[in-house]
Amino acid sequence: MRLSEARKDHFRKLAKREGYPSRSAYKIIEINKKYRLIRSGSVVLDLGSSPGGWLSVVCNHVGPRGFALGVDIRPSDNLPKNANVAILDVTSDTFEESILDLLPRTADVILSDLSPNITGIWQMDHLKQIDLTKHVIKLFPNILAPEGSAVLKVFEGEALKDLVDSIRLDFERVEIAKPLASRAASSEFYLVCRSYRR
Ligand SMILES: C[S@@+](CC[C@H](N)C(=O)[O-])C[C@H]1O[C@@H](n2cnc3c(N)ncnc32)[C@H](O)[C@@H]1O
User: Fold this and answer.
1) Residue of the nearest CA to atom 22 in ligand 1?
2) 16 a catalytic residue
């Protein structure tokens, strides 16, 4: 077994043992350990939340005073009691309106682990993923609180630089994270964006 496969297998087994719906949970655990974005009482919007690994982690952190909303085109099962979920498409024209109705106030943190169906055609997958991320960025002015944070999955490729340059204008700090649970061979990584300049 190659090292990356062994690591994937390790996180899959760990997720099963610790009751997370997916090994992805360990990506946000690692990011949050380092940056401390999600806290008790936070309002968090988790986009591309199915099957619920990140959302379960978020629910543990926000606790009873906070609010966690997961959104996906697919359903999720076996989530913590304090999880709120909605089946919605981030690309739909009415998406922002629906989110504003569902959140109790602007979000302290917006997470996006959105991924299109992977075709294996690298260039096409990259462009589709960046397009999904652009839909997330469009939400910031009305949905992300001033000084709020975002964690955005992105796929490496030609459209990335312009996207990162534009995000840097909106946040005090933007850093790149590649958590251990993210396969080394995959082109995904995460932009950790802090202190939104609203
Ligand atoms: C990598 S998975 C997310 C894993 C999740 N963060 C977890 O921890 O279990 C990516 C998700 O993005 C969702 N997705 C893709 N396109 C979407 C869209 N247009 N609107 C909402 N969700 C979408 C997929 O359905 C998929 O569940």
Assistant:
1) 72
2) no
pLDDT in tens, 53-73: 999 999 999 999 999 999 999
pLDDT band for 102, please (50, 70, 90 cuts). very high
Question: Contact at 8 Å (CB) between 141 and 170?
Answer: no
* Residue 46 CA, closest ligand 1 atom number: 6
Spatial separation of the C-alpha atoms in residues 94 and 138, rounded to whole Å: 13
Mean of pLDDT over the chain: 95
Q: So where are the chain's domains?
A: 3-196
Average pLDDT over residues 182-187: 86
Catalytic residue among 8, 27, 128, 153: 153
Q: Which fold has domain 3-196?
A: Rossmann fold (3.40.50)
Task: Find the helix or strand (DSSP H, E) in which 83 lies.
Answer: strand 83-87
Exposed / middle / buried, residue 110 (Cβ in 10 Å: 0-12, 13-18, 19+):
buried
- Residue of minimum CA distance from atom 26 in ligand 1: 48
What's the pLDDT band for 9 if we cut at 50, 70, 90? confident
Contact 167, 143 (CB under 8 A): no
